[in-house]
Amino acid sequence: MGLLQRIGQRRSGLTFALLIVLSLTGVYLYHSFNSREPAEIALVIGEPYEAMRQRSSAKISPPYDNSIGFRIPKTDARLRFIDPKYGFITPPARFLVMY
User: Fold this and answer.
1) pLDDT, tens digit, for every residue of 69-91?
2) In terms of pTM, does the model score above 0.85?
3) Which terminal residue of the chain has fewer beta carbons within 10 Å of its beta carbon, N or C?
4) In this structure, are 29 and 47 located in the same domain?
5) Number of C-alpha atoms within 13 angstroms, CB side, residue 61?
6) Do residues 92 and 76 lie in contact, with contact meaning Cβ atoms separated by under 8 Å?
7) pLDDT for 10-37, tens place per residue?
8) How many angstroms separate the first and last alpha carbons of the chain?
9) Domain extent for 55
10) Minimal CA–CA distance to 80: which of 46, 42, 51?
């Protein structure tokens, strides 16, 4: 009977340790995905593309020579339109369009 009792205690100890590891992993994942401040694209009308890239915290690909098109940021980003009268900030998104 002593052997079965020790096996049961060992199993309950391993189950408890596994529960602690899984709980800590869950807390870490929740914190890492939900606590970061999203990247930001800061836009001023009339400024060069490279100036907007330098001011923004989002990773945006450099412009191609002699091309018309759009660039998609690598992560979700907020668009911050810098204007004294009509400035605004959008919710985080991957695809942002300004007309």
Assistant:
1) 566 666 788 888 888 888 899 88
2) no
3) C
4) no
5) 9
6) yes
7) 888 888 899 999 999 998 888 767 766 7
8) 78
9) 39-89
10) 42
Instruction: Tally Cβ neighbours within 10 Å of residue 79.
Output: 20
Q: Please indicate, yes or no, if residue 81 is contained in any of the structural domains.
A: yes
Residues 85 and 44 in one domain: yes
Answer whether residue 97 is part of any domain: no
Which residue reads 């204007």 in tokens? 83
Position 51, amino acid: A
Residue-wise burial string across 39-75, b where 16 or more C-beta atoms lie within 10 A, e elsewhere: bbbbbeeeeeeeeebeebebebeeeeeeeeeeeebee
Cβ atoms of 55 and 42 closer than 8 Å: yes
Phi, psi of 95, deg, nearest 5: -115, 115
